[in-house]
């Protein structure tokens, strides 16, 4: 019998490009939202920007509280195995960051970005939603100012339990429509919250976050496969 566990990893930036990332924090959450593992990972390279808005940590906190990757992997071992299905937003990346192997540490993954994506006739491509957008539109969550892997893994599991587990194509279609409508509200709230926090144009040294969207990339590094690109809803 399969066991479902939500996994989330947050990375700090090791450079200003969108691919310059190093995992610094992870959490594993069970089907009931209980946190099984919540660890800060000690980086083996210098950190350019701790990306506190995603990691919830400053660089000095990461180096002070981080544990070596091997110890973090050991803490996960007791919970993982070939019976485990990992749940999360683009969770395959997270599994790869932690060097987890399919067939040994997990059986399969359920990528919520994939499950909730909606085909747009008008634009002739899939529209993807972020975990925060889904949490806001489907779970009524408020836009977080900062977040951490435990919070995100709990959100991922709540979305999975409420909208994916035992769902039908009809119920999923309803969920995707609800998500599309709710996302507009989320984006306006997020933009209001972000206003004044950092310049819209970004500082010259601003870290690029556009791994999934070549249109907004400022670093010139290779973006993720166009077919599964995270394209904004507007
Ligand atoms: Zn970029």
What spatial order of strands do you see in the largest sheet?
A: 3-2-1-4-5
| Distance, first to last CA | 41 Å
The low-pLDDT segments are 196-204, 226-234
Give me the CATH superfamily: Ribonuclease H-like superfamily/Ribonuclease H
- What fraction strand? 15-25%
Level-1 CATH class name: Alpha Beta
Backbone structural class? alpha/beta
Helix content percent band: 25-40%
Number of strands: 7
Q: What is the CATH topology?
A: Nucleotidyltransferase, domain 5
Bound molecules: zinc ion
Count of DSSP-assigned helices: 8
Order of helices and strands: EEEHHHEHEHEEHHH
Please tell me the overall pLDDT: 87
What's the architecture, going by CATH? 2-Layer Sandwich
- Please describe the biggest sheet, giving its number of strands, its sense, and whether it closes into a barrel: 5 strands, mixed
| Total domain count | 1
Shape: globular
Describe this structure in words.
35% of the residues lie in helices and 18% in strands. The chain is α/β, with parallel strands linked by helices. It has one domain: Ribonuclease H-like superfamily/Ribonuclease H (Nucleotidyltransferase, domain 5). The strands form two sheets. Strands 3-2-1-4-5 form a five-stranded mixed sheet. Helix 4 links the parallel strand 4 and strand 5 (108-111). It is globular, with a radius of gyration of 18 Å. The N and C termini lie far apart (41 Å). Mean pLDDT is 87; it is low at 196-204 and 226-234.
């Amino acid at each position: 019998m399969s066991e479902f566990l939500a996994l989330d990893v947050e990375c700090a930036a090791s450079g200003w490009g969108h691919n310059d990332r190093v995992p610094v924090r992870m959490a594993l959450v069970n089907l009931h939202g209980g946190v099984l593992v919540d660890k800060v990972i000690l980086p083996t390279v210098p950190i350019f920007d701790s990306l506190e808005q995603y990691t919830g940590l400053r660089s000095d906190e990461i180096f002070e509280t981080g544990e070596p990757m091997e110890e973090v992997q050991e803490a996960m071992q007791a919970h993982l195995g070939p019976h485990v299905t990992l749940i999360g937003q683009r969770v395959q990346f997270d599994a790869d960051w932690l060097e987890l192997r399919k067939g040994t540490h997990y059986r399969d993954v359920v990528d919520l970005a994939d499950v909730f994506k909606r085909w747009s006739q008008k634009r002739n491509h899939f529209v993807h939603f972020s975990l925060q957008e889904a949490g806001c539109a489907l779970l009524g969550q408020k836009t977080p100012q900062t977040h951490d892997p435990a919070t995100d893994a709990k959100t991922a599991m709540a979305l999975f339990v409420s909208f994916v587990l035992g769902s039908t194509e009809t119920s999923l279609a309803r969920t995707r429509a609800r998500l599309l409508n709710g996302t507009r509200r989320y984006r306006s709230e997020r933009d209001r919250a972000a206003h004044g926090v950092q310049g819209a144009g970004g500082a010259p040294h601003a870290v690029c976050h556009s791994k999934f969207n070549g249109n907004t990339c400022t670093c010139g590094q290779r973006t993720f496969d166009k077919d599964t690109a995270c394209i904004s809803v507007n």
